Amino acid sequence: MKNRMIRSMGFALILALLLGLLPAFAADEGPAAPAFRYEHDPRLNPRAMEDIVADPGAVYGFSPSPEGSLAAYAGYDWTDPDAVAEYRQNRLDYFRSFEQMYDILDEMTAQGREVEEMARAVSAKRNELRLAAYDGDPEGLAAVKQRNLEKYGHEDGPTADELYQQYGAWELVIEKAFSHNSGMDACVGLYDEYYEYYLAFGYVKEESAAAASREYAVCAFAEAAGLAGAGSLDAFPDGETVSGWYAPGLSAALAAGVLRGYDDGTLRPGDSICRVEALVILSRCLPALEETREAIPFADVPAWARADIDRLSAAGLVEGYGDGTLGAKDEMTVAQVQTLLLRLA
Prior knowledge:
The protein is mostly helical. 47% of the residues lie in helices and 2% in strands.
């Protein structure tokens, strides 16, 4: 399917973005087990989190927000594995319907048609497919038509001219016809399958380079440790700046005493977190650790963090850089947080 799409488009921009990155449609493996965790956290995708909320009761940990573009789905039961399996299958069927757009591009490319003509044809087909996806769901169809009416002034969806005005190039109009909502992917268990797509289109940053925020790292460690409780974020002047989907994790970390704030009384949730800070918090989340080796005496660990870093090192959770240093003041990356979570698992 990827080869068909690449052959059909034939545009340098789209090739650069899509070559080898858009996966074949994922096989449906059914509903996830309880406490499902994605390899790539949708909470790091601002575009996705505009439309969904972290929902521990949901099959895949997320459900549509009543305030986002997926509001029509907010009333569905996202805690029922059988229902979510059906939603997932519907989404996969929708993606498979993109074959019809590939057919249009194949045929028009063979005919030597202009890019604008292709963009107009593909955009019209995309609108048709979107509405057809609500077959058997009259309430959902009515809701999406109403949103289209409010946003565009007509029920079918954006016209090719409106998309051209928005994006400024017919190649981009074609590209956008093949885009999809990463938030809904997260709700139905398809987020990891399409993660490379989000990277290609700039929805997320490469995790090996992206700095982990303080709120992300603390929440990830608190969840992995199973911390519970309700500490008060309101006790901090910047507590209200905590992202909503991280608030429960930070609240639990406060209640457990593993998150204590800075000397000036702030939490600084959105700031990047350095390695030594993150690891000390992780150590506090794990009061019972088994020693499996001698702790590595890292040369750059400050005295206040030494005991916690030694605990993690002795448990085999921390390796450092191999030159006797931890990189204590280096920013912790998202990928490094995820590596620690895998070691914990």
